[in-house]
Amino acid sequence: MKKIIENLWYGNIDPCGDYVKNTDELNELRKKRTDLYEKLLAVLNEKEKKLLDEYEECNIEIFAIHEKELFEYSFSLGFNLAIEILTK
Fold first, then answer.
1. CB 30 within 8 A of CB 36
2. For the segment 14-34, what is each residue's pLDDT rounded down to a tens digit?
3. pLDDT score of 54 more than 70
4. Is there a contact between 59 and 4 (Cβ–Cβ < 8 Å)?
5. Taking a C-beta distance cutoff of 8 angstroms, is the pair 8, 15 a contact?
6. pTM for this prediction
């Protein structure tokens, strides 16, 4: 247990970035998203591009909040599960 806590402290474990597996499906979706975004940028004027950037920034903030909430919930759930197992 001390090793895990120590690794968290020193940043050797990134609970927000180490859990996503780099699958072919995910890579295909990332490429598709990039291609669609580039196509969209090609047909927008400067004002519309700025609006799209603001929209993207808002989505990033929402995603970050969701990720934080999910991490907190998952951590608490795991901890409560461990308590229940250890107290039986």
1. no
2. 766 666 778 999 999 999 999
3. yes
4. no
5. yes
6. 0.67
Q: Which residue has 């920034």 as its token pair? A: 57
Q: How far is CA 30 from CA 25, 27, 59, in A?
A: 9, 5, 16
Query: What are the boundaries of each domain within the chain?
Result: 1-43
Non-local CB neighbours of 41 within 8 Å, separated by 6+ positions:
49, 52
Q: 86 CB contacts (<8 Å, ≥6 apart)? A: none
Crossing angle (nearest 10°) for helices 46-86 and 24-43: 160
Chain centroid to Cα 74, Å, comes to: 14
Nearest one of 65, 72, 57 to 15, comparing CA atoms: 72
